[in-house]
Amino acid sequence: MKFFIDTANLDQIKEAQDLGVLDGVTTNPSLMAKEGITGRENIINHYKKICEIVDGDVSAEVIATDFDGIIKEGEELAKLHDQIVVKVPMIKEGIKAIKYFSDKGIRTNCTLVFSAGQALLAAKAGATYVSPFIGRLDDISTDGLNLIADIRLIYDNYGFETEILAASVRHSMHILECAKIGADVMTGPLSSIESLLKHPLTDSGLAKFLEDYNKGN
Ligand code: E4P
């Protein structure tokens, strides 16, 4: 399972990269705005900085919602760096654009996916990644993990190569359940990755080992 961090915060990206388990980064316009990164030029420069920190795929989202606009923006983003994956929303024009990009060898991440039907379309169009948002489904009392399981089944039935990128991950149980189901990738905040580290028996066990070691020294 690949681990992506879902942030535009450079310190957190560095911290995750230093942990040695990071495979990529996802961003979106809200995450950019949260870091105060606004305006086309600043956003482009920020993507370049992220690519310098991370060894792996970096999703960069288009703002346009019409076919020509998505193509223009996506081609500009793809030219920035080999690691860039063009993030395209799950809308009719987006599906057309994903097919276009796929034919041109430009990698894509189909975002804002909330149903298995949408994920099937994204795979048919040749998306590199599909991003079902599990946390946001949970927020409206719908089990996001069921969606991951449905997409896994459908993709395996037909041998689709589109990777399932479980997005809107909020905590360690989301990651573990996605791993059991067979999601290819998870993306979440640094806290969700670091929460995998924690167990009270590890803490108390280590404290006891250190205490006993110090008795003999
Ligand atoms: C995915 O690529 C999105 O950036 C993200 O996972 C959305 O998560 P949120 O629901 O926590 O905003």
From TrEMBL:
Gene3D superfamilies per the UniProt record, alphabetical: Aldolase class I (3.20.20.70)
Main localisation: cytoplasm
UniProt keyword terms in alphabetical order: Cytoplasm, Pentose shunt, Schiff base, Transferase
UniProt xrefs under InterPro entries: Aldolase_TIM, TAL/FSA, Transaldolase_3B, Transaldolase_3B/F6P_aldolase, Transaldolase_AS, TSA/FSA_arc/bac
PANTHER family reported for this sequence: FRUCTOSE-6-PHOSPHATE ALDOLASE 1-RELATED, TRANSALDOLASE
Active-site annotation: 87
Annotated catalysed reactions: D-sedoheptulose 7-phosphate + D-glyceraldehyde 3-phosphate = D-erythrose 4-phosphate + beta-D-fructose 6-phosphate
Metabolic or biological pathway: Carbohydrate degradation; pentose phosphate pathway; D-glyceraldehyde 3-phosphate and beta-D-fructose 6-phosphate from D-ribose 5-phosphate and D-xylulose 5-phosphate (non-oxidative stage): step 2/3
Domain of life: Bacteria
Family under the similarity heading: Belongs to the transaldolase family. Type 3B subfamily.
CDD domains: Transaldolase_FSA
UniProt EC number: 2.2.1.2
Gene this chain is encoded by: fsa
Keyword Nucleotide-binding recorded: no
Protein localization: Cytoplasm
Protein name: Probable transaldolase
Role: Transaldolase is important for the balance of metabolites in the pentose-phosphate pathway.
Top-level class of the enzyme under EC nomenclature: transferase
